[in-house]
Amino acid sequence: MKEIKIRYLSKEIDKLCYIDGKSDWIDLRCARRTELKAGEFALIPLGVAMQLPEGYEAHLMPRSSTFKTWGVIQPNSMGIIDNSYCGSNDEWKMQVYALRDTVIEVNDRIAQFRIMENQPKLRFTECEELEGKDRGGFGSTGKA
Predict the structure, then answer these.
(1) Does the annotation mark 82 as catalytic?
(2) CB distance 82 to 97 below 8 Å
(3) Span 72-91, mean pLDDT?
(4) Which of 83, 63, 88, 78 lies closest to 2, judged by CA?
(5) What does the CA dihedral 106, 82, 6, 72 come to, rounded to 10 degrees?
(6) Given 20, 24, 27, 82, which residue is catalytic?
């Protein structure tokens, strides 16, 4: 089991917990009340800083209910937090863009993350032809 050092930057949010059997994603909470008007962008503070193990990164995503509940989307689709972002005050934040007026309260579960091993080093070898069968174009799966 990997150990992750965590510093809580807010006393108002619940501590992180891993729920065995449900998912290997861990919820993150809003650490400061955030009020947004439609069309506004914000960095939602998540109240934690972590020291990830060497060779690992965190993938940060909205929870499945985030858009339905607050009308915000994560404009970069997914956040990546690498293990060099590990200082005591390197607070994790979630980028959001509001599609309607909304208020996100302290301790609301707004995001989720998982820890992933970094991609191995790759070497690209140029060639004239690939061995696989052409599938018919981008977005063509399942079409006759």
Answers:
(1) yes
(2) no
(3) 95
(4) 83
(5) 10
(6) 82
